From TrEMBL:
<dbReference type="Pfam" id="PF17919">
    <property type="entry name" value="RT_RNaseH_2"/>
</dbReference>
<dbReference type="InterPro" id="IPR000477">
    <property type="entry name" value="RT_dom"/>
</dbReference>
<protein>
    <recommendedName>
        <fullName>Reverse transcriptase domain-containing protein</fullName>
    </recommendedName>
</protein>
<dbReference type="InterPro" id="IPR043128">
    <property type="entry name" value="Rev_trsase/Diguanyl_cyclase"/>
</dbReference>
<dbReference type="GO" id="GO:0003824">
    <property type="term" value="F:catalytic activity"/>
</dbReference>
<dbReference type="InterPro" id="IPR041577">
    <property type="entry name" value="RT_RNaseH_2"/>
</dbReference>
<feature type="domain" description="Reverse transcriptase">
    <location>
        <begin position="4"/>
        <end position="60"/>
    </location>
</feature>
<feature type="domain" description="Reverse transcriptase/retrotransposon-derived protein RNase H-like">
    <location>
        <begin position="123"/>
        <end position="209"/>
    </location>
</feature>
<dbReference type="Pfam" id="PF00078">
    <property type="entry name" value="RVT_1"/>
</dbReference>
<keyword id="KW-0511">Multifunctional enzyme</keyword>
<dbReference type="InterPro" id="IPR050951">
    <property type="entry name" value="Retrovirus_Pol_polyprotein"/>
</dbReference>
<dbReference type="InterPro" id="IPR043502">
    <property type="entry name" value="DNA/RNA_pol_sf"/>
</dbReference>
Amino acid sequence: MLDVSIVVYLDNILIYSNNPMEHRKHVCEVLHRLRANRLYCKGSKCKFHQDSMEYFGYILSPEGLHMCEDKVKAILDWPVPQKVKDIQSFLSFTNFYHCFIHEYSDIVIPLTHLTCKGTPWKFNDKCMATFNELKQVFTHTPILIHWAPNRQLVVETDASDYAIATILSIYLEDGKIHPIAFLSQSLHNAELNYDTYDKELLAIFEAFKY
């Protein structure tokens, strides 16, 4: 059942199904297996037959995956960083949701540069502009629809001097394409010296690894 109809992380169990009848069978099977192993669930912490729910900072629904409003608010309310640890905390939080942001790694370059060892602290106008830009892009994150194996996948890649980016999308019934994930990563060491076409090839390679 694992990764077929359930996802387990520590003591959190998420059961998913294609329809209500199938879901009842899956729930019963999970409860039977827990009982057989003398493992029990606290009723007050359980939610059954939900069309949508929050799971580890995401909202899962039939429409797709989107961010929780309180997480977006936390980003918007984030105070201006005063030291390196503040930048690290902010980037750690936003990076968790980078799959919603196109070219995330490219956007945050001025901020990540401040976290490099030996870099003097100088939160200048460019860093402030990046900080505010990143806040704003999180207010317009799209719903990432669920991947469908029977639909054509579209892979769009790009590369800059310092990062690579990919948009993974699928065709909908109306012929339009809609994103299922945004991927991006910074270039490091030898990758920074790649020719443009090699950087673009790396973006394609990383997209297919995903």
